[in-house]
Amino acid sequence: MRNGWIWSVAVCALGLVLAAGGPHVARAQGQAAKRPNILFIMTDDHAAHALSCYGSRINQTPNLDRIAAEGVRFDNCFVTNSICTPSRAVILTGKYSHLNGVPVFNRFDGSQPHVAKHLQAAGYHTGVIGKWHLGSDPTGFDQWEILPGQGRYVDPVLYTATETKTYKGYATDVITDLAIDFLKNRPKDKPFFLKYHHKAPHREWTPHPKHKAMFIGRTIPEPATLRDDYATRTDAVRENRQRVFDDMTRRDLKIEPPADLPPGPERNKWLNEKPTEVEIVTPGGKKVLRGEELNDWKYQHYMQDYLACVQSVDDNVGRVLDFLDQNGLRENTVVIYTSDQGFFLGDHGMYDKRFMYEPSLRMPFLVRWPEGAKTGLVQKAMAINCDFAPTFMELAGLPVPPDMQGRSLVPLLRGDAPAGWRTSMYYRYYHDPGHHNTAAHFGVRTTTHKLIHYWKKGQWEMYDLAKDPDELRNLYDDPGQQETVARLKQELSRLKKELKDEDQFADKLPADGVDGPPPARRQGARRERARGR
Ligand SMILES: [Ca+2]
To answer: In angstroms, what is the span from residue 31 Cα to ligand 1's centroid?
Structure first.
């Protein structure tokens, strides 16, 4: 309470300094000019192990690697709820799902405080372009142009507060063009904060034809756990419906419907089915694939399309970096690259995310800031997506509001080792059964271990990440591990309490509400319909 009051006074004081005339203004503006620009680049579902700077075995991302080589690569950045809309709400507010009110695909209440509002009030020119997926109209942004819900890959529609625009072209290119326009047309007397958000490489992984051509016929190495038999694990993982071999639909696999199936419900039903045999054309003629041969084919098709989508992101991030470098914006712009969560690239036999396992929990997080960050630093300290908003606050020279639950990463960018930095993080996923029949769970990850509790099932998993980085041996019932289990349970309780998780959404979830146009345009569309337009 007291901290909150002090913080409010500090922000008000800053506002007064900026609003008042006289020499104070000149000094405030002089300081403002030095504040760094922040370009926050976020993709959707881009796993760290599909970036070459993170040691990818399956692709090359030279432009994303530039950010790492010229800045800092975080090797232990984790998402606190591995799903799209919740992660976006955490990033904006600096608070866990149970406090920002977005545990699932429900609409974000934009009247609450968040980092874009704070930066805007402090004189930043703020914008969000691309995928938003929070359901409500963006607040705290001087300029916004967003996809409805997931949006589409080809000829995307984007919404502003007053207009609906359809763009010819591929979404990743279009969103980048709009981001570059934002940079070109911004007021030059203010620092900017731009959230430049791609739809790619989200399902259904539709690549640009030129990138598709790069990957057709390429054999992608399989992950070691593609054929995981789930021995020792709980029912939760056995019951999941996000398996490459069993759950990919004809739509995911880009299988052409029969010519005599016209567009409509029947065709959609056909596309949404999970095929157990597929006819392909080979140089030797037609061939029907089944069983293991079909499984291999599904993995290759999934990864070829996914990686081709990533390649377009890499090209386009390169265009933006070039723009910054060529327009005098290199030195004092903090460029961040991340994804809203990790993703399974056939790991444990899965696609998608949701589970607290490493491929889905880990976020790529790269930061280039020539004026303030080290070059080529690999940062091993544990970061979480709650830290992003506090980081933006410190970059903007603002105090971190006490109700934000993360911690600024700015000292870590400089290579400092702040006292008392976290050595464990708390995670909670709510959808149950939700999409893909993933069970709700919460857990703790330390630097060496992970404990997961599927609270609706009453089941637990515990992993020794040092000895078993692929999380294949659940040690929860191992008699020799009971001291470790007890210690992890204690840490889990401590974190849950510290973060004020009082099971707010454990039993009852808010209704979905993030698909379709933003509310401002929904009302506009209704008015237009009423007028007979
Ligand atoms: Ca996502």
So the answer is: 37
